Amino acid sequence: MCGIAGTLSLGKPLQETERAIVRDMTGMLRHRGPDSQRLLADDRGALGGARLRITDLSEAAELPMASENGDLWLTYNGAVTNFRGLSGQFGLAGRRPLRTRSDAEVVMRLYEELGDSFLSRLSGHFAFCLYDRGRGRALVVRDFYGLRPLFYLVHGGRLHFASEIKALLEVQGWDRRLDHDALWHFFSLAYMPGRRTPFAGIQELPAGHLLEVDLRSGVFTEKQYSALNYEPDPEMTEEAAAAGLRSRLLGAVERNLAVDVPAGLTLSGGLDTSGILGLAKELGLSRGLHTFSVVMEEPSFDESRYQKIMVDFARPIHHEVRVGPRDVLDCLFSTIAHLDEPSGDGAAAPSFLLAREARKHVSVLLSGEGGDEVFNAYETHRAFRARRLYRELAPLWARRALGAAAQKLPVSCSKLSFDFLAKRFTEGAELGVPEAHLFWRHVLTEEAKLGMLSCAVPERTTAELFRDFYDALPYPDELTRLSHLDLWHYFVDDLMVKNDRSIMAHSVETRFPYMERDVVDFASRIPAGLKLKGFRGRYIQKRALQGLLPPVILRRSNMGLEMPHSLWFFREFRELAERYFSRAHVERSGLLRYPAVAGLWQDHLARRRDNGRPLWCILNFLIWFDMFVYEGNYKQYLQHGPGSGAAQA
Questions:
Q1: Are residues 187 and 265 both part of a single domain?
Q2: Fewer CB under 10 Å: which end of the chain, C or N?
């Protein structure tokens, strides 16, 4: 794992001052790569890299890397996990000895052998810029599933790119106006959708896309080089699906643990992370593996019972990270500074705290992210099935009565409380499929946003964005469309932002066995009815993991890492919230209307509604706005290397 940054000329030659800016951009990423920072530059391109040594710890594998003749330069973030197999398949060492044992060199050599088509052979998580100096072109590439971030800014005849937005803020002179459409959608989704960022001038390169830059003509083109495609095989039996999935998951875990540094695993106690630990045990690797578990200090959010079951079962080297409200307050400003954008993900701060502890022991963490999407495991997927039955069996008058009764239920702030589920389900069930899918997760409705936001309404509402994407998918099966929608938006735009930035803040690389190419490709051929069988979620995943996990783990339902902010707003979060929800803080954002924010706050304190999630999004936005726009003091909250502290507000 590393941080990358660079500038490519779309016209006049680069000046020395611009090379210095790339050094500054790279310096802003040193938490991603504390082991070394380097720069390669000529008059058409400057590539910077901050390296975290994971595979081949020698100086020969430092980044950016140049080919033997100097015609190719590569700055590189992430890991191509199948590089050893590809090196053997194409006989790279036989044609010309490899200088390193690194995947970065294999990427360069594959480009030399296969040209751009080498991209289709890769698996793993990566973002890189490959500068072909001999041909006067560059490729700026993001991996298939958006596991590693890549942002870019076009300004003054230059294309600037970086792993994080904060590095691009080192570039001077561009219009830093906010993207109000992105922020409008944020207050429904708790994340920025697609290529949008908080700044209108900065875009995120979508998953499976590249920028092809012709440095001679100064023209660049965005291309999609890979697309997720579901082609269920109706002839696939349950036995074949389980066996095929099991063998691929074993290979994925083994490849991702083949590193030259200590490795670990985030262990929630849910099926995805427990499954990885069970697979590691089957491979004989669990006893040398460090596991890290967040233990939330609220009973309805606590999964420690299941974490302990897995620790007793697999005997890893286990670490508990206890998280209470004071812990979150202590790290909140640093977490937001590293995220670079507003985020309503309640797992970001706990993940930041887990990574801080993990860095004392490991440089790599395996993650269970992706399992929910690949295996249709979200509760909203079961709600989709329930919605159909509910609408078929209950006449409209009965549904209206049930909805009215649900709205009268007393408010509970426990995790996934009955009143929350009943209110969300009965109201959302009256909507179309993608609209219901959004509603069951939404932060604020379009009507609520109209009352709270002072910016112009986008051409397309958030629900219309979901509908447009859903309708454009070619699959007849509605559940498959929802799975694709979740991977494209929620997984990439929320989970990967949280996972990458909050954990890389402490110089720890995350890896995702469930998102290995062969696993995703095989899972996309498994019929949807074997992933969600009736209302039995993760059906084929559990079949594949039978015998590798304790039965109690195979039986448990989804929970997910989340923070009890609804409860903590009544107590420990109240002072901070009231400071930021004041008229002065709200109105200086130029986006939020104070009466609407005050109304949400008062309704929550009076327990008329559980507004914990909307308030958490508003609080995070206002802190972000002060830090990145109003005060511009985000740098004082950044981590500066393993074990370093950061100033707090």
A1: no
A2: C
**Is 205 found in the same domain as 274?**
no
What integer pLDDT is reported at residue 95 of this predicted model? 87
Q: What is the pLDDT of residue 646?
A: 28
Whether residue 87 lies inside any domain: the answer is yes
Based on the fold, state whether residues 71 and 168 are members of the same structural domain.
yes
* Alpha-carbon span 649 to 7, nearest angstrom: 34
| pLDDT for res 643 | 38
Percent of the chain with pLDDT over 90: 83
The answer to whether residues 197 and 303 belong to one domain is no
Which residue, among 293, 336, 273, 253, has the nearest Cα to 519 in the 3D structure? 253
Report how many domains make up the chain.
Answer: 2
Q: Would you put residue 641 in left (φ > 0), alpha (ψ -120 to 50) or beta? A: left
Helix, strand and coil content of the chain, in percent to the nearest 5, comes to 45, 15, 35
> 171, 201, 224: which is the final residue of a domain?
224
Maximal C-alpha separation, the chain: 76
Question: Helices marked H in 99-217 — which ranges?
Answer: 103-114, 165-168, 180-189
pLDDT at 114: 96
Determine how β-strand 45-51 pairs with β-strand 2-9.
antiparallel
Peptide bond into 206 cis (omega under 30): no
Relative to beta strand 2-9, strand 219-224 is unpaired
Q: Coil, helix or strand for 417?
A: coil
Distance of CA 570 to the CA centre of its chain: 29
User: Are 256 and 285 a contacting pair, CB within 8 Å?
Assistant: no
Alpha-carbon torsion, ordered 311, 313, 317, 323, to 10 deg: -10
Q: What is the CA radius of gyration of the chain?
A: 24
First-to-last CA distance in the chain?
A: 30
Positive/negative CA dihedral, 564, 568, 573, 577: positive
CA 303 from centroid of its chain's CA atoms: 22
Confidence (pLDDT) at 407: 79
Could you tell me the CATH number of the domain that includes residue 253? Answer: 3.40.50.620
| pTM, entire model | 0.95
Q: Are residues 220 and 280 in the same domain?
A: no
DSSP code of 628?
I
Put residue 632 in one of left, alpha, beta given phi > 0 → left and psi -120 to 50 → alpha.
left
Q: How many CB atoms lie within 10 A of CB 590?
A: 13
Residue 350 located in a structural domain? yes
pLDDT along the chain (649 residues), means of 10: 93 95 97 96 97 94 94 96 95 91 96 96 97 97 97 97 98 96 97 96 98 96 94 94 98 97 96 97 97 90 92 97 95 97 95 97 97 90 88 88 79 67 82 90 93 94 95 93 94 96 97 97 94 90 96 85 88 96 96 97 94 96 98 91 36
Reported as type and span, the H/E element at residue 73 is strand 72-80
Query: How confident is the model at residue 412, as a pLDDT?
Result: 66
Of the residues 499, 530, 555, the one at which a domain ends: 555
- Please check whether residues 59 and 179 belong to one and the same domain: yes
In this structure, the answer to whether residues 199 and 344 fall within a common structural domain is no
Range of the domain at 172: 2-224
E strand residue ranges, 199-277: 202-204, 209-214, 219-224, 263-266
Neighbouring C-beta atoms of residue 260, cutoff 10 Å? 16
H/E stretch holding 319: strand 317-323
Written as six digits, the tokens of 471 are 């309708």
In this structure, is residue 85 part of a structural domain? yes
User: Phi-psi bin for 70: left (phi > 0), alpha (psi -120 to 50), beta?
Assistant: left
